[in-house]
Design the sequence.
């Protein structure tokens, strides 16, 4: 079976841990327990009749703007960029983080998850913000760890991208 | 080509006059050199063209280097600096290629030197341990003796009980699991997660505590579980050990990791999540699944058990010794019993710690318990079962004869084989009885009484007193002829004996004559010997007369030093030479007495 390391990237409290929990164990909690260091989970799924095991590295969101710990993302085959749709700052942070990771790992697959889509009243992003990213070729998914909206899809998109790249192998050195 | 012609050629394109001249020269050269000139030109062109020159040198470079190195090390010296610089630059730029290249080489070299140092250290520890004498070390000593291994080895084994339960081969970069094996007894849970988590922990520590990038988390402990991590350039090897991890596990891990790097270097470099090809590392990883379970059995023997065992051994030893001791005592006892006259051992028996001795015992024989020794007899708890019998040993025959005949003092008894010889004087009646009774003595078949003289009671008294007086010796001080002290006090007793002799002699109607014989030691002249011995005899005679005995009874003889005492030997013995002795004669029996010279 193919294994792939995937990172959950995004600033604090955007719902990285919640998304993983929803995806892996179909559970959700309103309680906020910040992640220290890194938490690891795994999920097996099938992409194009091929089984793939995703090792999900749920990183702690940094308090500082646009901070990333390179040692954690090293060796990742892709990442889920998470932001909180009710916090504009987290959206900009995500874009910044993407830049940083590309600098470390090169162009590897990623998916942008704009989370907490159930909180439509507090929504802080405009359609144009999202469209701008899509125009650059980004894959953006609106998710909610609470309702489960878009969660499966976000991970599935990421896995598909990764497997596509896997079958047209290109070596990368860190 | 000379520098001169070179500068000349360069001038071609600058000066139009010179150009004309050159063309003429050219023609001249053609005429002079013909075809050779063309070749010369071609060679020139080739040398001027840098690619051509490079190719030219490349052709001969390997051979040139080889030749140079055969000759001397000038080339090496010349290149040294460059090579060093190149290495430095390479490491500065990216250390990985060099690390990759050197990793399989450096590991073994370092390990070898470490092993040697450790071996020395271990030796020291061995000696230390060997001198300690705990109960445990005694047990280990016993184990070493029992199994034929070195003591130090046993100590190691016993102090290092462990089991490597799992081994993880992990891609260093992604934390993805390359291969995982576990021992039969281990309970494994999601090795993929463990693998990622182990890597994450590493990263977490490196990140949080700002440690050197080259350093890594090497060991984690949780209760009796230890996780050891060995880092390679591409992969890391983690093992989970229950118990005390032995020192050599690190070495095994390092070797394993090196081997895997060597064999699977391509697969490691191009790893992209497909761990299939790393199943091949299983045999190598299995080397790490060490355990020390086999000695556990021995280890679990508790000190109490050993104590009990030891006590049992002591008791066994004691018992065996007792058994042996009894056996030895019993054998000595039997030896003594068999040799003892008057005892005939017919059968012996050992029954439940008791000994039974059966046989025959002469009533005159010693008590068998006394023969064996009272203490031993009691220890052995011997029961005697003797039947009475009559032993025919000369000793017993004699005893029996004395019992049966009860001879008077004046008779002597000799037994020769089965013959009893009686001599001396005895009353006629006793002689008659003795002749009859002797036949009742077991072991005696005939009796010889020819030397036996019949005597009446007073005669017996006479002979008894005669024998007494003749065995009496009076001793004198050196150079003295008079008696002193105890010797002088014996006179009254002698007087009474002589009076009895006189009376009995009278009863026998015989005349008594007592010869008093004086002796001297061998000091001085013969003359002085005679004088002093006579003086001593006269002194005694005078003393007896003074006590009321008639002088007619006595005669004196000076023996000088001619008859030294048979008892006197050596220096102190001379005391016995200075003496007076007696001889008793009946006048009409003078022929029976040895004449005195
Ligand atoms: N309403 C709503 N709340 C969410 C959603 N996702 C997460 N939350 C809440 O947001 C808070 C933070 O969620 P986490 O998943 O812990 O956030 P995180 O990104 O892991 O945070 P760090 O570990 O601190 O970086 C929690 O109280 C969650 O209940 C969502 O989709 N909808
Ligand atoms: Mg979290």
Sequence:
């Amino acid at each position: 079976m193919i294994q792939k390391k995937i990172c959950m990237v995004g600033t604090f409290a955007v719902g990285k841990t919640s998304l993983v929990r929803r995806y892996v164990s179909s559970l959700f909690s309103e309680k906020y327990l910040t992640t220290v260091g890194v938490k690891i989970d795994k999920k097996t799924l099938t992409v194009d009749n091929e089984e793939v095991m995703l090792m999900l590295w749920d990183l702690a969101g940094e308090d500082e703007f646009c901070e990333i710990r390179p040692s954690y993302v090293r060796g990742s085959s892709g990442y889920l960029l998470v932001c909180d749709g009710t916090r504009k700052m987290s959206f900009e942070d995500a874009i910044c983080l993407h830049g940083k990771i590309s600098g470390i790992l090169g162009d590897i697959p990623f998916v942008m998850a704009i989370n907490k889509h159930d909180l439509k009243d507090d929504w802080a992003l405009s359609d144009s913000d999202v469209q701008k990213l899509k125009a650059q070729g980004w894959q953006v998914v609106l998710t909610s760890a609470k309702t489960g909206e878009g969660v499966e899809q976000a991970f599935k998109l990421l896995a598909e991208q990764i497997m596509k790249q896997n079958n047209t192998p290109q070596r990368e050195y860190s | 080509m000379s520098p001169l012609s070179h500068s000349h050629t360069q001038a071609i394109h600058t000066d139009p006059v010179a150009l004309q001249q050159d063309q003429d020269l050219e023609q001249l050269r053609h005429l002079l050199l013909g075809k050779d000139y063309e070749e010369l030109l071609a060679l020139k062109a080739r040398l001027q063209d840098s690619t051509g020159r490079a190719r030219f040198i490349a052709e001969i470079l390997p051979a040139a280097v080889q030749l140079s190195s055969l000759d001397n090390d000038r080339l090496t010296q010349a290149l040294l600096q460059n090579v060093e610089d190149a290495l430095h630059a390479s490491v500065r730029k990216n250390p990985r290629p060099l690390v990759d290249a050197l990793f399989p080489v450096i590991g073994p070299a370092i390990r070898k030197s470490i092993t040697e140092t450790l071996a020395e250290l271990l030796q020291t520890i061995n000696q230390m341990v060997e001198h300690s004498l705990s109960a445990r070390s005694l047990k280990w000593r016993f184990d070493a003796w029992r199994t034929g291994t070195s003591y130090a080895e046993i100590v190691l084994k016993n102090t290092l009980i462990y089991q490597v339960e799992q081994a993880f081969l992990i891609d260093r970069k992604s934390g993805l699991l390359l291969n995982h094996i576990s021992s039969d007894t281990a309970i494994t849970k999601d090795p993929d997660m463990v693998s990622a988590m182990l890597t994450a922990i590493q990263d977490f520590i490196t990140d949080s505590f700002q440690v050197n990038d080259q350093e890594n988390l090497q060991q984690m402990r949780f209760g009796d579980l230890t996780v050891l991590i060995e880092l390679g350039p591409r992969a890391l090897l983690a093992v989970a050990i229950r118990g005390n991890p032995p020192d050599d596990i690190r070495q095994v891990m390092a070797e394993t990791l090196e081997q895997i790097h060597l064999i699977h270097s391509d697969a490691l470099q191009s790893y992209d999540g497909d761990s299939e090809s790393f199943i091949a590392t299983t045999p190598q990883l299995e080397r790490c699944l060490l355990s020390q379970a086999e000695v556990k059995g021995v280890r679990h023997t508790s000190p109490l058990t050993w104590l009990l065992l030891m006590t049992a051994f002591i008791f066994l030893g004691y018992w065996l010794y007792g058994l042996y001791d009894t056996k030895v005592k019993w054998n000595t006892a039997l030896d003594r019993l068999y040799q003892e006259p008057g005892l005939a051992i017919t059968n012996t028996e050992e029954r439940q710690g008791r000994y039974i001795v059966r046989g025959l015992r002469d009533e005159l024989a010693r008590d068998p318990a006394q023969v064996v020794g009272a203490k031993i007899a009691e220890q052995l708890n011997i029961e005697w079962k003797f039947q009475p019998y009559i032993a025919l040993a000369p000793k017993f025959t004699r005893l029996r004869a004395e019992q049966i005949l009860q001879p008077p003092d004046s008779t002597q008894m000799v037994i020769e084989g089965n013959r009893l010889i009686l001599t001396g004087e005895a009353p006629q009646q006793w002689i008659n009885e003795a002749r009859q009774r002797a036949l009742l003595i077991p072991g005696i078949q005939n009796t010889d009484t020819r030397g036996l003289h019949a005597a009446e009671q007073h005669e017996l008294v006479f002979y008894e007193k005669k024998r007494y007086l003749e065995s009496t010796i009076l001793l004198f001080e050196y150079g003295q002829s008079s008696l002193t002290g105890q010797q002088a006090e014996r006179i009254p007793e002698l007087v009474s004996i002589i009076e009895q002799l006189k009376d009995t002699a009278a009863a026998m109607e015989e005349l008594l004559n007592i010869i008093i014989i004086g002796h001297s030691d061998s000091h001085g002249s013969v003359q002085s010997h005679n004088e002093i011995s006579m003086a001593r005899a006269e002194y005694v005679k005078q003393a007896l007369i003074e006590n009321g005995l008639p002088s007619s009874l006595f005669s004196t003889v000076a023996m000088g030093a001619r008859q030294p005492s048979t008892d006197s030997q050596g220096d102190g013995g001379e005391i016995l030479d200075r003496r007076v002795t007696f001889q008793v004669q009946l006048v009409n029996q003078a022929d029976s007495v040895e004449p005195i010279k």
About this structure: The beta strands of chain A are 2-9, 38-47, 50-59, 78-84, 110-115, 140-142.
